[in-house]
Design brief:
With about 325 residues, the protein is mainly α. It has a domain at about 160-315. About 50% of the residues lie in helices and about 0% in strands. It has helices at about 5-20, 35-40, 40-50, 50-55, 65-75, 85-90, 110-115, 120-125, 140-150, 160-170, 180-185, 200, 225-240, 250-270, 275-285, 285-295, 305, and strands at about 90-95, 100-105. Strands 1-2 form a two-stranded antiparallel sheet. β1 and β2 (about 100-105) form a beta hairpin. α15 (about 275-285) packs antiparallel against α16. It is globular. The two termini are about 25 Å apart. About 35% of the residues are buried.
Length: about 325
Amino acid sequence: MSSLKRVLSVVALLAMVVAGSGLSASAAPFNQGEAKCFDCHKAEDTVWKATKHATSFREIHRKPEVKNIITAAGGDANMRRNEVCTACHFTMVQANASARPAATTGPSCESCHGASSDWMALHNDYGGPTAKRETETPANKAQRKQKSIAAGMIRPDMLYDIAGNCLSCHGLARPGIAPETIAKMIDAGHAAGSSFELVRYLEGTVRHRFYPPDVTKNSEMTPAEKARMFVTGHAAALVNGASVAGKVNNAKYEETRKKIETSARAALDAIKGQVPEAAALLAEPTDANARKLVDAISGKDLTAQVGALLPAKGTYK
């Protein structure tokens, strides 16, 4: 699962196939909106409300270059109804499975953690209707996590999958949008995306790490955690860029792709001597090889190898 959006595309396709066969099929998972998360995650929601993800959707359509970008993208001239635009700039929320999706907010909780219609109830089940998080048993917690993931939730510790979702908008390979369309949009003034780097973004204004033992503190990652995040993000970026290599004959698009690849290869080159899986990924940039690398660096301290490459705090987004 390199990106939830890819998964949802597959789910939708399977639903169509099953429908045509006369078999029954459940509806594809849908976004319920950040308000569904607010009751249990007030601190995280407060952080989100101060980010560009939460605020930019109110004014982005007024930018002078938007008209040319939408023309290049094709489709509806209204950003909130244009599927190329809504894929990244909005959260398309539904009241229920049969309701029409509406662009109610910018990118929000489900943009990163997956459409919640199938996993929300599982995620909130601490062991029965009267159970609370404070009294949850370890066995129920483990089962709750497994069931939520199986239902489509992308948990914070699934960092490679989080990175994949980030790159489904900040990268060049965007599910459901042809590379040629992205190239036309870049020529029309759309940001290319070569500046995206996982530590710079996730440790910036969007950071929402309210974890035990002090759930009131928005904790920074340790240097070792940042180093692993840095490698993980570049592994995902290399795979994302490799998937569209050679697919577009466009100078700006290819220049962006090469910048992303160069940065990713520099990060992985720094650790390939200590982590053979990095060398394997460099030789063959596939999702499977990237996941092997992420598994291999779990718990490792790579600051000696990549610490000098980490972005300075002053550059955090």
